[in-house]
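Notes from the 1:1 (GR / supervisor)

We went over the backlog. Supervisor wanted to see one worked example end to end before approving the batch request, so GR pasted a single chain during the call. The sequence is below; no edits were made to it. Supervisor asked that the structure be written out right there so they could see what the output format looks like.
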Amino acid sequence: MQLITNDKFVSVYHRVLSQNTGPRISVASFFVNSHDPVEGTSKVYGPIKKLLSEENPPIYRDTTLKEFLAYYYAKGLDGNSSLDPFRV
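Structure output shown during the call:
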């Protein structure tokens, strides 16, 4: 969401604090962009063109889900944003 909105909606660092006050429930949500997983990874994503202007130039370059996921999985969970290599 951060990439396609050109930082209008910025992701927050996710962390959980355990209070030991009872069971914790987590709900995972996954969104798939295509019924065909191979086709879906080749679709190009970038900042929404209607949100861009001279005063608000693109912050991120266009990329595919395949390229983003390759970087995301290679990088691992280190607490840093996975979007940094996709900045213009």
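Supervisor's comment: The longest helix spans residues 65-75.
Batch request approved.
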